[in-house]
Amino acid sequence: MKLFFFFLIRCSSITLLASSLDIVLYIYISFLVAFDFMAETRAVLLKELLKHQGHGSLKKLFVFGDSYADTGNCKKSVSGSWKPPYGITFPGKPAGRFSDGRVLTDYVASYLGIESPIANYNWRKSVKRPQAMNGMNFAYGGTGVFNTLVNEPNMTTQVKFFQQLLEEKIYSRQDLINSSIALVSLAGNDYGTYVFQNGNLQDLPTFTKSIISQLVVNLKSIQNLGVQKIVVTAMEPMGCLPRLAVFSSYKNCNESWNSVSMFHNQILQQELQNLNNASNNSVFVTLDLYSAFMSALKRQANNSGNSEVRSSLEPCCVGVSDKYSCGSVDEKGEKKYKVCKSPELSMYWDNIHPTQSGWNAVFSALKSSSLPKLY
Ligand SMILES: *[C@@H]1O[C@H](CO)[C@@H](O)[C@H](O)[C@H]1NC(C)=O
Ligand SMILES: *[C@@H]1O[C@H](CO)[C@@H](O)[C@H](O)[C@H]1NC(C)=O
Ligand SMILES: *[C@@H]1O[C@H](CO)[C@@H](O)[C@H](O)[C@H]1NC(C)=O
Ligand SMILES: *[C@@H]1O[C@H](CO)[C@@H](O)[C@H](O)[C@H]1NC(C)=O
Ligand SMILES: *[C@@H]1O[C@H](CO)[C@@H](O)[C@H](O)[C@H]1NC(C)=O
Ligand SMILES: *[C@@H]1O[C@H](CO)[C@@H](O)[C@H](O)[C@H]1NC(C)=O
User: Fold this and answer.
1) Membrane-spanning residues where (predicted)?
2) Which of 71, 156, 165, 270 is the most buried (most CB within 10 A)?
3) Catalytic residue positions, numbered
4) For residue 148, is pLDDT > 80?
């Protein structure tokens, strides 16, 4: 499938080139790239196939949010996602994903039968401005609906970037109405920032409500631009993130933080129901990351027998001491982290992010629950 899409993309650029040259040259190129030419035929066949499977036409995926969805938007100079050992499983070197490999966006894209959408950052800096026919990813690691500790665009600004593309006529409103899906990831950076600034969980329910109302504002903006299907992540069990589980030597999840996630999800669910009710059709779909993480953790726990990672809550890549984290190097450029031998046996890659295998397990759980509602 992977190889196939590579050809699909190359093929469309060749077709573009040919349309600006004469037909003889086009035929000549077609012969030269006979294999690609075949691929184009296959692309048409694939579209038909997807239609017959009830998937409709090929979709465009637009992505907003944080590191669970980012595929390369954060600044190379500051973001750990661009440093080894990130990306060792896929694509084989650091490429801006906060994992050893694929992340949520990649799995959602493959479910829709499309290539993972291009990162907005890569698209902007490329002179040729590629077609971006799979949509675009506006998610930035470390961000939230409000400004956080990282100096990257919050969700409101990400939606503005999206709106600019419509103003620049890269996409038309009708494009979006016909064939787009949005994925919105909110995994807890607003909470992290709140605790960093306030030192405790006091007044957290009030803060949860303000997060959700800001999220609703952003979701409505996306909908008003024409997107007819908007997939929103429910909060994962924050207390099971290694960052918090470390205090129990990875034996238990922090139940206080899991309650925060559950309260968040309850308010979120109510608000999405209201939004769906107001628009008559089910525009908004929740991706229940809470249950999906829980079932993935159970599945990975089964692996821990074979793994040097002792518990499903223990991350694969950690700093050698509290001062360091996954990807840290000292002034001399020496590695200050260690990586487990088999990332595929771990649920978590670092203190916050699942491994590719973890995301795969999360996605399997989602497929049997929330995802079918996309169609
Ligand atoms: C988002 O970021 C912009 C630019 O920093 C800021 O003006 C705006 O207030 C932020 N929005 C929210 C909801 O925090
Ligand atoms: C959108 O769909 C309608 C009806 O199926 C079709 O006529 C129209 O050409 C499509 N527009 C775009 C921009 O895809
Ligand atoms: C769980 O998190 C809360 C809030 O950060 C903290 O006060 C509590 O000590 C933690 N519990 C455990 C068992 O680590
Ligand atoms: C849906 O909206 C209608 C009218 O706006 C309202 O009467 C009804 O109670 C709402 N249903 C739910 C389940 O919120
Ligand atoms: C919802 O449906 C009702 C009746 O089918 C219609 O009168 C109303 O305009 C619709 N509202 C929206 C927002 O589409
Ligand atoms: C755990 O492993 C056992 C034996 O390999 C298998 O039978 C069982 O289904 C697994 N459970 C889960 C939750 O994957």
Assistant:
1) 23-45
2) 71
3) 67, 350, 353
4) yes
60 forms bridges with which residues in the sheet? 180
**Residue 181 DSSP one-character state:** E
Q: What is the pTM of this model?
A: 0.84
- Residue 318: which of 310, 306, 328, 303 has the closest Cα? 328
Residue nearest to atom 6 of ligand 3 (CA): 256
Ligand nearest to the CA of 169: 2
Domain ranges of the chain: 2-13+59-82+102-296+360-374, 17-56
Span from the CA of 204 to the centroid of ligand 1 (angstroms): 21
Measured in Å, residue 198 CA sits from the centre of ligand 6 at: 43
* Coil vs helix vs strand at 280: coil
Would you tell me how many other CB atoms lie within 10 Å of the CB of residue 278?
Answer: 9
Band of residue 35 on the pLDDT scale cut at 50, 70, 90: very low
Residue 172, ligand 2, Cβ within 6 A = yes
Ligand 6 within 6 A of CB of 302: yes
> 58 in ligand 2 pocket by Cβ < 6 Å?
no
Is residue 28 scored above 80 in pLDDT? Answer: no
Return the axis-axis angle of helices 356-367 and 104-111, rounded to nearest 10°: 40
Instruction: Quickly state the pLDDT bin for 11 (edges 50, 70, 90).
Output: very low
